Known about the structure:
This protein has eleven helices and 13 strands. By secondary structure, the protein is α+β, with helices and mostly antiparallel strands.
Amino acid sequence: MHKVVISGSGLFTPPHAVSNEELVATFNAFVQAHNRQHQAQIEAGSMTALAESSAEFIEKASGIKQRFLMNKDGVLDPARMTPHLPERGNDELSIQAEMAVAAAREALANAGKTAADIDMVIVACSNMQRPYPAVSIEVQQALGIDGYAFDMNVACSSATFGIQTAVNAIAAGQARAVLMVNPEICSAHLNFRDRDSHFIFGDACTAVVLERAETATSAERYEILGCKLATVFSNNIRNNFGFLNRCDEQGIGRPDKLFVQQGRKVFKEVCPMVGEHIAGHLDSLGIKPDAVSRFWLHQANLAMNQLISRRVLGREAAEGEAPVILDRYANTSSAGSIIAFHLHSRDLKAGDVGVISSFGAGYSVGSVALRKL
Ligand code: COA
């Protein structure tokens, strides 16, 4: 079995930053127009008035201050509140592949690899823009990679599940090196008219190159010490969008065809699950939690990450021990923990241990223990 390392990572950040204040101004304009339009029913008691959102609540409840989006105008237009991403022709590079190629090029450059070194491409994310041909095969072609590619979806945990899949392929000798990419356009599955969740997500794409330890030459190399994955079914984060929708016209366009969650339940159920998962994983590897220099956690909610760190460490995480990127990026689904890794790993010393952990819909949780070489 070959030892496997992460030898490079890359990040594509969309061009448009949107603050909580901007998002709330649009949401509240929508609420005011809705309540004006239905004033008679609201006064008659047959309809409940919609409540406004607040930037203070968003930052206090989630830690999010802004997010990056692929399109801003469509989202901030109170009459639309959906990103405007025009369809492209079949002969043009699709938008998800474009994001993926940008992040992948940086990951390849950081790994000191070219397309000729890669045997397998995985696109792992929460939403694919089409069922087929696989976005990963389009990325493979755009980068000129031989071998094979496939898409996979484990919602917010897609990256750690993708890493485990890549590790297996490399360890077994199926691939010399793997490119694993997470193009997330979360703004397209987010209901910007839902007060409980309109602020949660942002867009981004991350990529990592994994390869055999003996071929890795980059300055930043992280040996994979172990991966651990788990899933437990839950309806508390759900999206009913799918190819069967057209078979029941009544359901088309309903809010359940977008992201829906019971946020408080998710918080309560997922934190202990992830805390135990990471602690159990470290224990199985003979690593004491205090010997871990860095936790690159999924970026959904600041209080959630603080609680998970407390459960694993038995104390508050020190400054920089569990880096936060959700303040700027919001929840970028599978990309979140990899953004934290990409932006907050270079200062580690050889021998330092870190854990990437993602968690979310399914429920699903994944952890990847690394040692810097
Ligand atoms: N603006 C102002 N007030 C709001 C609001 C908004 N946008 N949204 C909700 N509120 C109000 C609610 O009406 C409620 O008021 P009440 O106490 O008078 O009833 C209060 O704020 C608390 O609402 P609640 O939904 O319980 O908030 P919360 O503290 O649980 O925070 C989340 C909401 C979504 C930020 C939080 O639950 C969370 O992040 N959960 C985990 C989500 C997660 O990780 N999901 C994974 C996705 S991959």
